[in-house]
UniProtKB/TrEMBL annotation:
Region (Disordered): 177-196
A GO molecular function held by the record: kinase activity
Highest taxon listed in the record's lineage: Bacteria
Record-given protein name: Uridine kinase
Entry keywords, A to Z: Kinase, Transferase
Pfam families: MeaB
Length: 196
């Protein structure tokens, strides 16, 4: 897959919105932790006139099994995320889901269904999710560089030493493993080089 630009991504999404009938198109944005997924999703949402809370992040779907010792595929509640995507693909008028954050906080999001559903998060392109997305985007950035950027960000957000150390012991190694196992660049429809 050759690399493209943000303007091309925006044009492709607008075309999807204009040509998809009877349901909401779904765009998946993935990359390693710290690669800029949330930033790209927020920019895309703003340019499409979506509300910030109409972007769905896998960070809202931590499984009850998540934690430092959980396996790479045990962090996300994949069935719950799939139900949200299925709702968009089957014509639901509401974007409604229960969330669970890393720290265990829970709640419910309930918003009008946007004209396009943007989903962003790590490990989003895999065997389970191949049929979920009308357009899949991979943000190209080495896991080590992305992890270093994420650690700097999280330090500014107030993460403690144990949380920051997880980047070296868990998140970055899992990023390498994910890229080798799932080949997300090859699964993606579009590849954008990370900014910064």
């Amino acid at each position: 897959m050759s690399e493209t630009t943000y303007d091309d991504l925006l044009a492709r999404v607008r075309e999807l919105v204009a040509t998809t009938e009877g349901r909401v198109p779904v765009v998946g944005i993935t990359g390693h932790g710290g690669a800029g997924k949330s930033t790209l999703a927020e920019r895309l949402a703003a340019d499409l006139g979506l509300e910030e809370d109409q972007v769905v992040a896998t960070d809202a779907f931590y499984a009850t099994t998540c934690g430092p010792d959980a396996g790479m595929w045990e962090q996300c509640d994949w069935p719950l995320l799939e139900a949200v995507v299925r709702g968009a693909r089957t014509g639901s008028e509401r974007l409604r889901y229960d969330y669970r954050w890393w720290g265990g906080e829970t709640g419910t999001e309930d918003h009008p269904m946007p004209p396009v559903l943007v989903v962003e998060g790590i490990r989003l392109l895999n065997d389970r999710t191949d049929a979920w997305f009308d357009l899949a985007v991979w943000i190209e950035m080495d896991p080590d560089a992305a992890g270093a950027r994420a650690k700097s960000r999280n330090l500014l957000q107030g993460d403690d030493r144990a949380e920051l150390d997880l980047w070296d012991t868990k998140w970055i190694p899992e990023g390498h493993a994910y890229e080798q196992q799932e080949r997300p660049r090859e699964r993606a429809d579009l590849v954008l080089r990370a900014e910064g």
